[in-house]
Amino acid sequence: MSTDTRPAAPAPVQPRGPVRVERRLPRLAPLGLYLAGVALGAGLSALTGSSLSSTVVYGVVLGTLAVFLASRLVEGRRKATDRLVTCLVTTAFGVAMVPLVSLVWTVLDNGLARFDATFFSNSMFRVVGEGGGAYHAILGTLVITALATVISVPIGLMTAIYLVEYATGRLKRAITFFVDVMTGIPSIVAGLFAFALFTLLFGNDVRLGVMGAVALSVLMIPVVVRSCEEVLKLVPNELREASFALGVPKWRTIVKVVLPTAIAGLGTGVTLAVARVVGETAPLLVTVGLITGTNLDPFDGRMATLPVFAYYQLTQPGTDTQAFLDRAWTAALVLIILVMALNVVARLISRFLAPKTGH
Amino acid sequence: MAKRIEVSDLDIYYGDFKAVEGVNVAIEPRSITALIGPSGCGKSTFLRSLNRMHEVIPGARVEGKVVMDGQDLYGADVDPVNVRRQIGMVFQRPNPFPTMSIYENVLAGNRLNSKRMKKAEADDVVERSLRGANLWNEVKDRLDRPGSGLSGGQQQRLCIARAIAVEPDVLLMDEPCSALDPISTLAIEDLMTELKDRFTIVIVTHNMQQAARVSESTGFFNLNGVGQPGRLIEFNPTEKIFSNPDEKATEDYISGRFG
Ligand SMILES: Nc1ncnc2c1ncn2[C@@H]1O[C@H](COP(=O)(O)OP(=O)(O)OP(=O)(O)O)[C@@H](O)[C@H]1O
Ligand SMILES: [Mg+2]
């Protein structure tokens, strides 16, 4: 490529023609240079016999440097800065991806061993060693999370509507403040709150699925409020005014104009709030406990849930330790899949419910 | 059903800021009243106070009287919702409902209030309103498409159709033609002339010729300086305003525009 080999003389001052021609690196050159730099760095550190992490660091630094210098020589300062920042941002992204990829990889690696039909169809009833599954825990998690959603969404959504459409002044600021405080409540505190509440009501030693749902609601409500509030604020005021001007009362305007306009965002927000609490362990540990059999009635005794199931499989393995560990990993894998599925659902909601503008 | 509106000593505030001061005017039924004046002098503010849309803005309030057929619209026992059902409005910027189709947008006034209507009747209202707003030919093949997919000018005409579909007694229009081409503008003007047999119409416009063409009376708003409240400087029959206005300020404003 001729552009690469040109001397690094300052670009001749060109008359201001209709379009100024600028010298550019060929399209794939930066990537090639970057990889070459990385390879060089890796080679260097291999020679000096250093560890994997320093290899990566050397490689990234040299790669970035190679791209920057080449660009500085050929393309000039502005473009070089652009390339430098691009390299830095991409590197930061790569660093951020490392834990995620590593986590997914580990869970997949360990969890696939027991990712079988038995795991999804059997409970742990009378299982002490191999076999058994989390059928009861998966259903329990679904029941309790659904119940928590049923409690949280009306409260959260109505609070958000109140904050955006009605509240003014001091009360509004107070509610916003307390919602913010609630967002920061540690999950164990939410669990203890539900525990204390139900102990007050029903006496000692009570363990119910609905207690867990209440504890999860305490965590979920502020998330629902905040996300719904943001979404409702995005609905343009002009639409409310258009509706008022047609003689539509305020509550009808909210129900028939504001909520339908925001429905995609509301659905997304709620789904993400569900994803946020579906993996909570601590509050369920103190309120719902765990059983080996299947109990789907949240108003009658202990229930199994996936996070608590995983916790006990891990911390109290029986004689056949490996079987218990495998089940714990698979439970973790199922949880991750559940959360990912919820995120996909959230995206689908926002895709399909968003107001259409096209032709 | 057209109504006469009498405004006396009306002051309009945004919080502590007095935007309009001391308006006294009588708006005649079955006629078109035009409001003109420089930008920011309070025309929209005044217009919105006529159907109690002004108070929708937090902190906004009104002092004075707006009497329609003997009843004070700002009386203690008057529900703003009922006022707005009788006094329709077209806004300065088009605002169709994005979740609704063109068809539903036109019927929004009925649908949102859960008024039941037979299909044939609804079709009829939609066609009549869209024809009235000179939009029918452009959208008749895609009534089920979203209203927000239309061009700006088409959206504005959709909003006009939506406002006249509920047959209000009074129609307030805030620069309804500012985004329209001359043909649609003429169509809207024809529509106004046609509607004034039944409705009372108040229109804000920056287009002097338009005011002269369509209106019976014209009001000129002005303000003395930045931060000062706007005032209704002169209110007279349109012919008089444009030929021989009482006030020097009116003449300056009008002749300035006409060169
Ligand atoms: N929502 C609001 N809050 C506070 N002040 C406002 C608000 N809307 C308008 N104002 C102020 O009230 C005054 C009158 O505004 P208004 O919109 O009525 O002007 P206008 O005559 O309609 O102007 P234009 O011809 O540009 O539409 C202006 O000084 C404006 O800054
Ligand atoms: Mg205006």
TrEMBL record, chain A:
<comment type="similarity">
    <text>Belongs to the binding-protein-dependent transport system permease family. CysTW subfamily.</text>
</comment>
<dbReference type="Pfam" id="PF00528">
    <property type="entry name" value="BPD_transp_1"/>
</dbReference>
<keyword id="KW-0472">Membrane</keyword>
<protein>
    <recommendedName>
        <fullName>Phosphate transport system permease protein PstA</fullName>
    </recommendedName>
</protein>
<dbReference type="GO" id="GO:0005315">
    <property type="term" value="F:phosphate transmembrane transporter activity"/>
</dbReference>
<dbReference type="InterPro" id="IPR035906">
    <property type="entry name" value="MetI-like_sf"/>
</dbReference>
<feature type="transmembrane region" description="Helical">
    <location>
        <begin position="55"/>
        <end position="74"/>
    </location>
</feature>
<keyword id="KW-1133">Transmembrane helix</keyword>
<dbReference type="InterPro" id="IPR000515">
    <property type="entry name" value="MetI-like"/>
</dbReference>
<dbReference type="GO" id="GO:0005886">
    <property type="term" value="C:plasma membrane"/>
</dbReference>
<feature type="transmembrane region" description="Helical">
    <location>
        <begin position="257"/>
        <end position="278"/>
    </location>
</feature>
<keyword id="KW-0812">Transmembrane</keyword>
<feature type="transmembrane region" description="Helical">
    <location>
        <begin position="28"/>
        <end position="49"/>
    </location>
</feature>
<dbReference type="InterPro" id="IPR051408">
    <property type="entry name" value="Phosphate_transprt_permease"/>
</dbReference>
<keyword id="KW-0813">Transport</keyword>
<comment type="function">
    <text>Part of the binding-protein-dependent transport system for phosphate; probably responsible for the translocation of the substrate across the membrane.</text>
</comment>
<feature type="transmembrane region" description="Helical">
    <location>
        <begin position="86"/>
        <end position="108"/>
    </location>
</feature>
<dbReference type="GO" id="GO:0035435">
    <property type="term" value="P:phosphate ion transmembrane transport"/>
</dbReference>
<feature type="transmembrane region" description="Helical">
    <location>
        <begin position="134"/>
        <end position="163"/>
    </location>
</feature>
<keyword id="KW-0592">Phosphate transport</keyword>
<feature type="transmembrane region" description="Helical">
    <location>
        <begin position="208"/>
        <end position="225"/>
    </location>
</feature>
<feature type="transmembrane region" description="Helical">
    <location>
        <begin position="328"/>
        <end position="349"/>
    </location>
</feature>
UniProtKB/TrEMBL annotation, chain B:
<keyword id="KW-0067">ATP-binding</keyword>
<protein>
    <submittedName>
        <fullName>Phosphate transport system ATP-binding protein</fullName>
    </submittedName>
</protein>
<dbReference type="Pfam" id="PF00005">
    <property type="entry name" value="ABC_tran"/>
</dbReference>
<keyword id="KW-1278">Translocase</keyword>
<dbReference type="GO" id="GO:0005315">
    <property type="term" value="F:phosphate transmembrane transporter activity"/>
</dbReference>
<dbReference type="InterPro" id="IPR017871">
    <property type="entry name" value="ABC_transporter-like_CS"/>
</dbReference>
<dbReference type="GO" id="GO:0005524">
    <property type="term" value="F:ATP binding"/>
</dbReference>
<dbReference type="InterPro" id="IPR003439">
    <property type="entry name" value="ABC_transporter-like_ATP-bd"/>
</dbReference>
<feature type="domain" description="ABC transporter">
    <location>
        <begin position="5"/>
        <end position="248"/>
    </location>
</feature>
<dbReference type="InterPro" id="IPR027417">
    <property type="entry name" value="P-loop_NTPase"/>
</dbReference>
<dbReference type="GO" id="GO:0016020">
    <property type="term" value="C:membrane"/>
</dbReference>
<dbReference type="InterPro" id="IPR005670">
    <property type="entry name" value="PstB-like"/>
</dbReference>
<keyword id="KW-0547">Nucleotide-binding</keyword>
<keyword id="KW-0813">Transport</keyword>
<dbReference type="InterPro" id="IPR003593">
    <property type="entry name" value="AAA+_ATPase"/>
</dbReference>
<dbReference type="GO" id="GO:0016887">
    <property type="term" value="F:ATP hydrolysis activity"/>
</dbReference>
<dbReference type="GO" id="GO:0035435">
    <property type="term" value="P:phosphate ion transmembrane transport"/>
</dbReference>
